[in-house]
Amino acid sequence: MALTDITGSEVIQAMEEFERLGRERFLRTYQFGRARRYLLYHEGKFYDSKAIVGAAHGYLPGRRHLTAKDFSGGESHAVGLLRRLGFTVVDDSAPSRTQQPPLARQAPQDQLLARLARLKVNRASGRPALYQPIALLWATGRARRGERRLLSWDETEQALRDLLERHGTRGERPRPDYPVSALYHAGLWVLHDHSGPVPKAHGDAALRRWFAENQPLGGVSESVYDLLRRSGEARVAIIDALLCAYFDGLDYIPLLTDVGLYDEAVADDADADPADDGAQDTGIPHAVVVAAQYERLCRIVEHRESEIRGRRTTRASANPIRSGSARRAVLLRSEGRCENPRCTGQPADVTASGAPILEVDHVMDLAQGGRDHPSHMVALCPNCHAIKTRGRTREDLRATLLDVARERHARWSNSESP
């Protein structure tokens, strides 16, 4: 076993597998725990550095992957290797994170995803407890509907207790004080109108008593609420991240339905413009931002597709998280114009609210073998949509549109600018 044989290529392959499987499944597959100190940072995402190196070793010809007991993850071993290969590794225990790219340079969505990836959750049962993800999905649903961000403790306690009783499938007790305290200390929740420090999410009677005596007003932080309220892309990215990390093997559909997040419009922005990226001040060219959004949405679609292949259930096959993400990706890719190359309509016209007059459709119906994926979907003006659906030349047009969808998807999925 020689870590020095590992190159950047094997590390990239390991990170790609991490993305395909999701963090929890990846760590279980390679028998690693969550990183306690060092995180590999690459393209706006964090990875468990030692686990990545262990998996990367298995991509060397004729080698097996390494387990946690086979090598050290410290600076002189796994961390040192990654840094020598040119990767950024963050020391999460350091009071000053000078190695980490400043959060101000990251998109708000990436900041939130990074914080979610580093949540500390109870694992006494061997699987991650669902307290915090249930609370976050509930808050996401409220933000999407534009409901009040801050609630009294009585309101929060009642709502979360009901959700934990119905959906806490890993032995979670109906104790809303646990997730609220944990999310507060993670910087994702705020609490007002209380005296003294907020206790950490440990113990029993003392924590319960503090919330009962203080009755704090609370909810997710204002920046998190505004992001989840405004951005459909951020909303589905956060939902997908939570599902991948915590709900592997569980039926999450009743929970998402209860909190109002299980419909295709969940990927839509609060405003009318699907291409509003909310990143005007980052200094990144708009085309690059939108291409990155397109790739992220496609990854969400593919995560939900892989779930279907594993479950083969009727309910999962109609997953609106996937279909909503695919629809939004196609609208982004279209740049507000009909994707039919023969369109003779008025592609520059918009609705009274400024949105493009476009309808997203599958080139081939799902019942006829079509795929709920941007590579098999197009954005069409109403006239072209009507021709594709019932026009005399519809079969010829469908063949053309399938070629267009595949070509545009391939171009937008690459690193080159669209």
Automatic annotation (TrEMBL):
GO molecular function: endonuclease activity
Keywords associated with the record: Endonuclease, Hydrolase, Nuclease
HNH nuclease domain sequence ranges: 325-386
Top-level taxonomic group: Bacteria
One Pfam family hit: ScoMcrA_N
Keyword Acyltransferase on entry: no
Name of the protein this chain belongs to: HNH endonuclease signature motif containing protein
